[in-house]
Specification:
By secondary structure, the chain is of the alpha+beta class. 27% of the residues lie in helices and 35% in strands. A four-stranded antiparallel β-sheet has the order 2-1-8-7. A four-stranded antiparallel β-sheet has the order 3-4-5-6. The chain folds into two domains: 6-121, no CATH class; 128-199, no CATH class. The chain is elongated. α2 (101-121) packs across α3 (128-146).
Amino acid sequence: MLINFNRTVAYRCPACGEFAYGNFSLFELSGRKGISVQCSCGHSSIEILPENKVTYSIRIQCLVCDEIHKFSLPFSSLAKKECCEFTCPNVIVGLVFIGKDEAVKKAVCQNEAYVSEVVAACGLNHTGKNGVTMLKALDKIQDLSDREMLFCECGANIIDVEIHEDDIILECCLCGSTMVLTTDMIRNNNFAHLDKLVIPCKH
């Protein structure tokens, strides 16, 4: 019987939003060594590093919530499972998939189908970088609204949200003032840490 020691890792790049792929052998994880995979955009990479003799550690910045997530990967799971999947604990979107090549690619496709359904429910018709970015924006906008930290300079806090492919428009339902949030603004790390969002009043 032939034993396949080759594995594939796929992770969602926090910079461009697309999935980056890499291949490695289980022998590369022996001892104190780890492996690193860089996205083709050149702005991110992921490392699988030894945590102890039987467990590996994965750290990744999440595109959706901008937090650094840390995952533990037992070597036994990596060796025996077809695919190990790790998701954002705040918004259930797959971030890292590690396992046998065919199983990883299948899991990524299933995850993208799920994301597509969620994005479509939000009024969008695409996935990839902008689709996941919009999920991130809507999650933040909802959080600010729940804490009454989303309002207009006129004093109103009833805000309409209009979603487009490349931006989100916030409109005050009282005075009609608007604010445009582009995907580049949303992908900026500062967006996830906003304490409040105030629409400038046009009157």
